[in-house]
Structures are given as structure tokens and as C-alpha cells.
Design brief:
The chain has two domains: 51 residues, Single Sheet (Rubrerythrin, domain 2), CATH 2.20.28; 71 residues, no CATH class. The chain contains two helices and ten strands. The strands form four sheets. It has a three-stranded antiparallel beta sheet with strand order 2-1-5, with no helix packed on it. It has a three-stranded antiparallel beta sheet with strand order 6-10-9, with helices on one face. Strands 3-4 form a two-stranded antiparallel ribbon. It is elongated.
């Protein structure tokens, strides 16, 4: 329960806990020394009274499980060089021409050759060319380009 009253010096509205009635405080605005009045029906305000009817007592329950929870983080696959010839699954690698351009140098062929050497000829299932279009963000033009899709066992 709070006591609401005004400072006699600057008329600043002050709110003090009811336990502080009769004590002397200093007004935070004008620094006048004030005695907190006694609580009566005119100056008493119940703290949070407007929200008291709207409050709902919520009980939260922590879920429990009979078995260990499923891990949502998967371990990264080992690089191609470190895999054994055991279980190999099909994988796909897309190389876009745009990603291989450097200032004044087109490294597309070198990049494709490097990746094909890493995969190894015996692991390659197919190599397919692709054509695609995209919007260049700097010029806002629709541009056409090409690339390669490599399907391999890995």
C-alpha cells in the first residue's frame, strides 16, 4: 500500500510506502524537507490494485522424459580425404561462375579442376552444366551466368 501526496513547495506528486508515514523525507525536485502524512482514504493507493483482478496464477510444469532427449546438434561430416571406402552416400557440389571471378582473373576452370581432383575420378557420378539468372544488387540488372553441378559419392 502506498501513500500519494504532493510536495507543499513545488506540488510534485510523491508516492511513499505506507510504512514511511510520519517520517521526514526530502523532495527529489525542490529538496524541501517534508513529513510524510498519515495514511487515510484520500491518499492511499493500493500498489497494483488495477492489475490485481487481471492476475492469473500460472503453474508451469517442467517436462520430464523417460529416455535421453534427441540431440539437435549433429556432428560435422569428415572431409572427403579422411573418409574410408565403407559407407559412401551421394553428395552434390555446385560451382557458380560468379563465385570464381576475381579482379581481372577468371578462376572458374581452376576451381572446377581443383574440386574434381579432391573428389577423385572414381567417386564422380555425373557432371552437369547449369545456366541461371540473378539480379546484380549494385546495378539492379538481370544477368545470366553458368555453373557446374557435380554429383559424387562421398
Amino acid at each position: 500500500m502506498d501513500i500519494v501526496f504532493s510536495c507543499p513547495g513545488c506540488h510534485q506528486e510523491l508516492v511513499v510506502d505506507a510504512q514511511g508515514s510520519g517520517s521526514e523525507i526530502e523532495c527529489p525536485s525542490c529538496e524541501t524537507s517534508i513529513t510524510v502524512p498519515e495514511a487515510d482514504a484520500a491518499n492511499v493507493k493500493l500498489h497494483g490494485a488495477s492489475n490485481a483482478a487481471n492476475k492469473v496464477d500460472k503453474q508451469f510444469v517442467v517436462p520430464t522424459y523417460d529416455q535421453p532427449a534427441e540431440s539437435l546438434i549433429t556432428k560435422a561430416r569428415p572431409p572427403l580425404e579422411k573418409q574410408k571406402d565403407g559407407e559412401k552416400i551421394l553428395r552434390i557440389k555446385t560451382i557458380r561462375h560468379t563465385d570464381c571471378k576475381e579482379v581481372g582473373h577468371d578462376a572458374f576452370d581452376e576451381r572446377v579442376t581443383e574440386i574434381l581432383n579432391q573428389i577423385g575420378e572414381s567417386n564422380i557420378v555425373s557432371i552437369n552444366t547449369i545456366s541461371y539468372s540473378y539480379v546484380d544488387l549494385s546495378t539492379k540488372q538481370l544477368l545470366a551466368d553458368f555453373g557446374v553441378v557435380i554429383i559424387y559419392k562421398g
